Every structure is written in structure tokens, then in C-alpha cells.
Amino acid sequence: MSCVNEDLGKLYALNGRPDLVRYSDRGTYSGESIPPPPPPTKCPQVPGLNLCGGACGACPDPTNQICMGRSPLHPYSLCVNKFGKVNMPTTCKMGNGNVCNYLGAGLKCLTFKVDTASQSIADVNGMCVSPAICDAAVNGYPGGASCTTGSM
Q1: Contact partners, residue 13, CB within 8 Å, separation at least 6
Q2: Staple 122 to which of 26, 67, 90, 105, CB 3.0 to 4.6 Å?
């Protein structure tokens, strides 16, 4: 999985292969532009969750967190744990195999709720995050998320 400029997604779509591109929440690439960040006074407060990007600012712990997830379905990014030397979260599959727990006590697998056509892809491309982040996302992340212990 790689992050690329949106122009590459448009190029794939123009050449008949939009199915090879996903938004950062793993939703189906429709060609719809990601909405611009909201004005500075429009970052919502979600208890227990740090929203980030645009009006919401940076993650409070950039050494250990990465800002990701914004898409047409999720108007705000959120701060999630990153592990090791890579600038990405550790991936997991939705399920109850406890794979995230091996990375740290009680970590959970966060998956974004996306369109029906792409939900199975989102479910196998979740992120191991702290239980507090996962539970807060389930309870209030705009656009929706699910939380399990993760599987391999």
C-alpha cells in the first residue's frame, strides 16, 4: 500500500482502471476530490480522538503518530499510532485473532467504514491502534469506523 498524489488516481481512472486506486480510508476511488480542509474554526471535537489535518492541525505526538484517513466519506483525518521506522501504522485484518495485541498491550484493529463495494478491502487493511483511539473512533469519528482485536 502506498500513498500517491491524486493525479495518479485520475490517470488510472482515465485509462479504465479506477479499481486499482483507493482513498486513504480504503474506499472506492470515484474521482471525487477530497474536500478541502474546513475553515480554522470548523474542527469538531470528538472525545478521546485527535482529528488532524487542515483546520484540525497536526497530531500531538508526531514522533509516534501519523495523520491519515481523510476522504470523501471521512471529512477529517485522525491521529493513529505508527510503529517502527516506517511512517505508517501496522496493518491488520478485521477479526478477533488478537494480532494487534502482539504489538503492545491491548492494541486494537481499526477499520474504516466505507462504501459497500470496498468494505471487504477496508476490512483486510485495518490499522493497529491504541484501544483509546479505536474506541473513540467507533463512538464518534465522522464517517464511521469499526474496532476488533484484529487477525492475521
Answers
A1: 21, 29, 31
A2: 26
